[in-house]
Amino acid sequence: MKQSLTFLSWLLCAVLLSQSANHDLLKVWYTQPASRWVEALPIGNGRLGGMFFGNPACEQLQMNEETVWAGEPGNNLPKGFNQVLPQVRELIFAGREDEAQDLALTRFPRRVGGDNNYGMPYQTVGDLWIDFPGHEQAVNYYRELDIARAIGKVTYQVGEVTFQREYFASAIDQVMVVRLTASQKKHISCTLSMSSPHQSKRVVVDGGQLMLSGTGSDFENKKGRVAFSAQVLPLVQGGDLLCNDSTITITGANSVTLLVSIGTNFKNYRDISGDAALMAANIIDKAKAKSYPQLQGDHERDYRTLFDRVQLELGVTDAVKKPTDQRVIDFAKGNDPQMAALYFQFGRYLLISSSRPGTQPANLQGIWNDLLEPSWDSKYTVNINTEMNYWPAEVTNLSELHEPLFAMLHDLAQTGADAAREMYGARGWVMHHNTDIWRFTGPIDGPFYGLWPMGGAWLTQHMWQHYLYSGNVSFLKGVYPILKGCAQFYADVLQREPKNGWLVVSPSMSPENAHRKGVSLTAGTTMDNQLVFDVFSNAIVASELLGIDPSFADSLRVMRQALPPMQIGQHGQLQEWLSDWDRMGDHHRHVSHLYGLYPGNQVSPRMQPELFAAARNSLIYRGDVSTGWSMGWKVNLWARLLDGNHAFKLLCDQIAPAPLEMKGEKGGTYPNLFDAHPPFQIDGNFGCTSGIAEMLIQSHDGAIHLLPALPDAWNTGAVKGLRARGAFTIDMSWANGRVTALTVHSGIGGMCRLRLPNALSGQVVLTPAADDSPCPNPLMAASVIKPPLMNDQVNLVGVTLPQTLLFDFVTMPGKSYSFK
Ligand code: FUC
Under the GO molecular function aspect, what terms does this record hold (predicted)? Predict the structure, then answer.
């Protein structure tokens, strides 16, 4: 009986994974063209982004190049902030936070004015238009984005002829490609044109190419100096090509391949001495030497080396027969588990398409933006949003896509050294809650939002996590100066608060939340304490591992002891602030004090059960429905709270039609699967992708925990290729909530500790371990922090944890271990 069950579960696993290899399940598809931008479908190669609408009579490809931003090099440090800083701190410690905030406001106002700036907007390049006369009467229309291949497609019929378009953005050849074919020869007739909302735009036809050039906008105190050149080369088979001043008309062709190349003069955040037109032309020259099948084949192979690393199968129902927009409408009604797998993989698609080694990191809209002044300038908001973009990078096996974020941190450690020195008189480096392509590090939007000197503290966690997932000591060595500089800043600025003598960051805030009407400014918020704890701990462990800076590490150890403990407040909640100011009815979108639960690892159900219960209370009173990214965060948080059904509930709130209003605090999903803040903000996509992974595997709390938060809706499934800290890769299948087959691939060897719902046996012996035995692998150990401070009035109701078993085994580098 047992044997046949095992065989059945293997069979199930094989069937499930072969189903997920079935590409049709990884298509986003529609039966109508896009009628607005959030229905168009994204292609991208990390640097270039395109949104295709698929209109039969008039195709629109909205184009982005990641370095087209307004402005020019330069930082935005407010003048004279250091003069008011001592008084701001005094006022805060005297409980006069409103006056402190007003005083800081005199140095940088809510709205930018004078000779400063609050960061530059990321900008669209413009649009490529392809007019097809006579195609207004198209029938049998179909539009898709195949995220398993990163290729878009549109087909329709006009009369007897079937027309097809294909679209992709190649990272190998650095071009976007549009391919037009028809079922009968000599039937492709169209006119190409380009447009752009940039004032400086110029469209010409030269040498058989359509060219759009322009310059990024002037903005605030900066002159627009990013020059761009978008060039379109039509390669026509059969038919005629007629070049006019600013359009190209093709008649009677058998097929047309359009190579779209965009260059800019941007070299790095301080250097814009490149030649935009030459760059675009060189790229086209190389790409045109390849045939269409070569371009497409090379693109697909390259893309799949990343995408194919993870397969996820959560079950397939008839719902997959519906177009994607309908599935978004129906998801919360249930019975479409594959939609969650599609949404998960779509997040991976977006990361692969918007963040490649050598490119800029994904911004608030990844790489896709059709405006000159998008919401929040589509900058890098680093009090949650940029971090969330990279949450899926390690766990979903796209580790190298983290690189652009690390490269940005190398820049920020330089521009942030000026901010540390000029604003705070400190060593090291600091940034506040935003940056842009010019790597500004000063505060923006007035002190209520902007006086949060913790952006670097959070972003550097990504470097540390990259180390934990890879065990790559030479990477750690390379980034150590950045981790050290970040720790040095806090070592210099921490202040002793008067009540308990704890060391705290002041001034600061719990991002964007008011502790009393109109006032966010304060000192020693829970998130700040958690972040400084991690910054110090990372620098300490790195110095030990690398054998450098022992006395600096000692000084950090002493200061770490003096950081405030987490506190449990009057409502049984994890306190958001140093004082017990939390309000039960506070549904603020930021849940900053829960950083220690996720993405941090300072709230373990086993080591700090009181904190765990308190964090849960905090999340309950914060509520579920909020902006897209807030719901994405909460999926991860409920997964960390080991409550799969609640995490799934948040997914249902998020995979639901986005409101029509383009601004607001109720998120959802647009027809093209983009996350709605609203408006479109890509972080919510990435947050849900990491959240789904976090429901299936966790590795922050002293073990690789398999199926830690499996919802009832995904009772049976299979996943291949998720990553765990300690450089492990996990393939597993499960049925009825129990792991039925497991393979652990070990990258660097070392002890592996598994926590799972049921026992397994296999080629090596799993040794049972006790729940309280120390974690045998330092890369997956939880932080051991000071015990929480309890409010005497609080009667905490404990949380019952699901039954799990704990096993250890030894692994060798490069070896795989299977169990069932
Ligand atoms: C933070 C959030 C907002 C928005 C913005 C880009 O300021 O509070 O909701 O996501 O970033």
Answer: alpha-L-fucosidase activity
Domain count, the chain: 1
Interval 150-175 mean pLDDT: 98
Residue 22's pLDDT band (cuts 50, 70, 90): low
In the numeric block, which tokens belong to residue 513?
């939340």
Rounded Cα–Cα distance for residues 247 and 52 (Å): 19
**CA 670 to CA 597: how far, in whole Å?**
29
| Residue 241 domain flag | yes
Q: Which structural domain, as residue segments, surrounds residue 249?
A: 31-70+120-308
Query: Which atom of ligand 1 is nearest to 512's Cα?
Result: 8
pLDDT in tens, 738-794: 999 999 999 999 999 999 999 999 989 999 999 889 999 999 998 889 889 999 888
Q: Is the CB of 394 under 6 A from ligand 1?
A: no
* Residue whose C-alpha is closest to residue 752's, from 666, 815, 687, 660: 815
pLDDT of residue 17: 47
CA of 277 to the centre of ligand 1 (A): 36
Q: Whose CA is nearest to atom 11 of ligand 1?
A: 381
How many Å apart are CA 420 and CA 442, to the nearest integer?
A: 9
- Residue 643, pLDDT > 70, answer yes
State in Å, rounded, how far the first CA of the chain is from the last one. Answer: 15
- Short-list 399, 429, 427, 394, CA closest to 411: 429
> For residues 368 and 378, what is the distance between their CA atoms, to the nearest angstrom?
9
What is the C-alpha to C-alpha distance for residues 441 and 412, in angstroms, rounded to an integer?
7
Domain-embedded: residue 38 = yes
The answer to whether the CB of 386 is under 6 A from ligand 1 is: no
381 lines ligand 1 (CB under 6 A): yes
Flag whether 605 is in a domain.
Answer: no
In a domain, 416, yes or no: no
Rounded to two decimals, the pTM is 0.97
How much is the average pLDDT of 580-591? 97
Q: Which pLDDT score is estimated for 253?
A: 98
As to burial, measured by CB atoms within 10 angstroms (0-12 exposed, 13-18 middle, 19+ buried), residue 243 is middle
Mutate to test the pocket of ligand 1, among 377, 681, 682, 686 (most ligand atoms within 8 A of CB): 681
**pLDDT beyond 70 at 23:** no
Q: What is the pLDDT of residue 5?
A: 42
CA 295/CA 289 separation, integer angstroms: 9
CATH number for 220: 2.70.98.50
Q: What is the structure's pLDDT at 151?
A: 98
Query: Is 663 exposed, middle or buried (CB count within 10 Å of its CB: 0-12, 13-18, 19+)?
Result: exposed
- Is residue 432 in contact with ligand 1, taking CB distance under 6 Å? no
CA 543 to each of CA 553, 556, 635: distance values in angstroms, whole numbers, following the listed order = 7, 11, 34
Pocket test residue of 512, 513, 685 for ligand 1, highest count of atoms within 8 A of CB: 512
pLDDT digits (tens, 9 = 90+) for 441-482: 999 999 999 999 999 999 999 999 999 999 999 999 999 999
